Amino acid sequence: MLSSSDIVAPDKRTPGVVAIDPAIYPMLDKLYARRIERLKAQALLQGENGEYFRFLTHLVQAQQDNLAQAPLEQADVEAIHNLLKQGISDTTELEHSLGNIQCWQVAYATLATQLAPMLPQKVAQALGALSADKTELVKAATHLLRADYAQVDAGVAVVLWAALSTCWAQAVARKQGEGITQPLAHATHCPCCHAPPVASLVMGGAREGLRYLQCSLCEVRWHRVRAVCVACDASGQMDHWTLDDAKSAIQIETCGDCKSYIKTLRLDYDPELEAVADDLGSLLLDSAMEAEGFMRVGINPFSFPA
Q1: For residue 295, what are the β-bridge partners?
Q2: Is the model's pTM score more than 0.90?
Q3: Is 205:235 a contact under the CB 8 Å cutoff?
Q4: pLDDT band for position 243 (50/70/90)?
């Protein structure tokens, strides 16, 4: 990988032999920098239709600024890890824990204030109103973490998820292996924070050909064997689709057994790709797959399902 990569180099315990890391933890500053560059590239590519990508560059820049100016205190790291250990199945318990963690609420208020001038008045007002109402803010965060996306306004959801993500990613990266709460080998959702993946990555460089799923929330990548469905583990009806040629760096993997699909970014073909930005820039592939009756595994945190 390039020196600017946000992917940690593998550990070579034996000369010439690369250990398969079960999880790769994010280097957030580099990840945000790469995401900003790819969002800018998508904005240029989209031309007059690139306004949303231009807004997202400001959003990710605000995340990066928050990381630099207000890194998590150790108490916040511990509180988030306690929440992750308890899981998200009990709504009341989740709301209580979220209400007691201040860092994500402060991050949300900061993002809402910084981004409001760039947003339609209605969305800006919704962001501000939620920031002023802790009870509703906690409820909205609970809905998102429990994948009840339709319960939260789409514009609010993007900013709120960004605030949660900045905090969750720091907490998971600081604790690393201590934060894994589920077995990794067959995990469809993140083994650290329970969130769905944004995409599947086929690595290049020292990890040539290995597949990792990237979390849409805490940015962890976890290893999954290729040629099996990430949703149901079947392997009999796996297909790969592209809009142009078989060597395309952005592909779709489908499973005929469970009718699911996941976006695959071939970093071995193009190491400059970034999961969130380049997934968002290739939604035409998603539309084609949904027209064929397949259902997406995972989400893009900048484009929540209705």
Answers
A1: 260
A2: yes
A3: no
A4: confident
